[in-house]
Amino acid sequence: MRFFTRTRTGRVVLQLALPVFLLWLWWVTSENSTSYAYPPLSDVLEQLREDWMFDQVPTDLVPSLARFSAGYAIAVVAGIAGGLVLGLMPRVQRAAQPVTEFLRAIPPPLLLPFVIVTLGIGNGAKVAVIALGSVWVILLNAVDGVRSVDPVLLDTAASFQLSRRRTIWRVVLPAASPQIAVGMRTGLAVGLIMMIISEMQGSTNGLGYQVLAAQRSFDTASMFAGIIVIGLVGLLVNLGFVLAEKRIMRWYRGARGLLDENEAARPTARRRAAERRTANAAATRDTPSRVAPVHSHLRPTRIRHQEA
User: What domains can be seen in the chain, in order of their start residue?
Assistant: First the structure.
């Protein structure tokens, strides 16, 4: 069992075992199916190849990802900025708490009719729905992260007379970044859900639109193919976020002793740069200094000048 937990290959095999088993089970149980509600997996894979490799990628997949990226970016910026303001200003946080709690309690899908009425059915409305659905979990986690910063760190920054901006950038944000990362990862899933929901109302393209159109035409093979694509998009987006978080938050996991043996033995970019600087300094110190030779023809001139 140590192979599946200590080695990278073993962890990959362990993670792929259940999906492969479920696909095999689906293939076996649906092989001779004649029900339109449960099509054979071979038909679903054939429809997946015909629709999404790669005819509908530029017309449906790319616009969905563009809208999701814009909405999620707006939610991240607004959530972190609002979290800093509310976390660093307790009076503002107490004044805004009733409003934030009221808006947070509203399920994000219920915002869709309001956004359609106010902004229409264009891409701007879909981006707004994604941003409104994702911003609250990021905002609340950012507030909790900022308010949980160790007061000793703030006192130390004040003793070094750091400016307000440098204190936020150098002390508050790094200390609150683990909690902010949790909110960003949760907001990632909420944003994907809101992307699909927004494309099912008043849209002419996108992943959600294609799944809904296939369901309304009783084309269940295309519907399952679209659902598989949505799941793969969510899996890849989450995997990319996890990899980026591991790289950016490596210092935090190292301080907590959460690094595995391979990560602990792998030097960081900052440590490699420090080792290069140390090696260059040692080489410079060990190199004998070159003293410019004294030209003999200058000595008589100096002597004659002294005699004169």
Answer: 59-254 (1.10.3720.10)
